[in-house]
Amino acid sequence: GDELTSYSCVCNEPPNPSNETLKMWKEKNVTAHDISWGNLTVSECKTFHGVFVGSACSLHGPYIPDVLFWCVILFFTTFFLSSFLKQFKTKRYFPTKVRSTISDFAVFLTIVIMVAIDYLVGVPSPKLHVPEKFEPTDPNRGWIISPLGENPWWTLLIAAIPALLCTILIFMDQQITAVIINRKEHKLKKGAGYHLDLLMVGVTLGVCSVMGLPWFVAATVLSISHVNSLKVESECSAPGEQPKFLGIREQRVTGLMIFILMGLSVFMTSILKFIPMPVLYGVFLYMGVSSLKGIQFFDRIKLFGMPAKHQPDLIYLRYV
Fold first, then answer.
1. For residue 53, what are the β-bridge partners?
2. Rounded Cα–Cα distance for residues 53 and 38 (Å)
3. 299 CB-contact burial (10 Å; exposed 0-12 / middle 13-18 / buried 19+)
């Protein structure tokens, strides 16, 4: 704290200016001596291709204060606002239709609100990095990747060991997620297509590997959130009566629409680059926390802190 006076970031004349810089100065009809480097603003310094010198400089100019604090505010506000809007169904404000709509679109509304607040406040928080063109992000490679590349032949044999571990991991991840989704409490009617799911994951993994795309996995948190959002509850008849869980709306529309919209996000890059990263992290935290609800392992952990008389009447408590 005592050394704050020694921190500064000033604009200086570039020590050895490039031809491009000299040409630009010539166009503006100035020389390096005409420019009062010390008095330039950040944007002016960048315009004249000056260099930033000092302990308070990053690569692209001075460090901007309050960015970290603003990111923390965005992160926690996103998390709490999502939770609040999700539970809006049980509040007393507005008609039932409005309440349930707000509750259903809680995460979307939160992102829109937080992006608007971030834009209005104007602190340059780190934004989602979105590529401009539809092409491989590494310019040194094409769409298809050669399996061996420049590696010697024996690397194929050695790679079999980590590949086996990856196979076990993906198999476990896929099957555990499927078991959580298809458990008895969800009252699903359609049979669980374990084999077909695994076959599809296997095929897409092959395609992704050849094209150098990220691997396909059963996103446990997303899958649980998806099932939770499709729950059907009884309409309350008597006042104060808790709605009963009737089952899950089983259909393929939401899954299909989600992936179509994910594909269309390629054309929405101009909007997506306004989304701050802390807002996305807040949404991820909210999804992780919300999908813990109803997982038996987590429920059992909570029972440790519950006196016996307050414990709910669960089947597994009768036998333990």
1. 10
2. 11
3. middle
Phi, psi (deg, nearest 5) at residue 127: -100, 165
**Tens digit of each residue's pLDDT (9 = 90 or more) over 258-268:** 889 888 888 88
DSSP 3-state assignment of 245? Answer: strand
Token digits of residue 150: 């420049």
Question: Looking at residue 239, what is its pLDDT?
Answer: 67
Digit-coded pLDDT (tens) for 207-254: 888 888 888 777 777 787 788 778 777 776 666 667 777 777 888 888
Question: Beta strand 57-58 with 61-62: parallel, antiparallel or unpaired?
Answer: antiparallel
- H-assigned helices in the chain: 19-28, 42-47, 67-86, 96-104, 106-121, 155-158, 160-181, 194-211, 220-229, 253-264, 269-272, 277-290, 296-303, 315-319
74: exposed, middle or buried (C-beta count within 10 Å: 0-12, 13-18, 19+)?
buried
User: Cα 9 to the chain's mean position, in Å?
Assistant: 34
Question: pLDDT, tens digit, for every residue of 117-172?
Answer: 888 887 788 888 877 777 777 777 778 887 777 778 888 888 889 989 988 888 88
C-beta neighbour count of 10 within 10 angstroms: 17
Vertex 62: Cα angle to 276 and 119 (nearest 5): 25
pTM for this prediction = 0.67
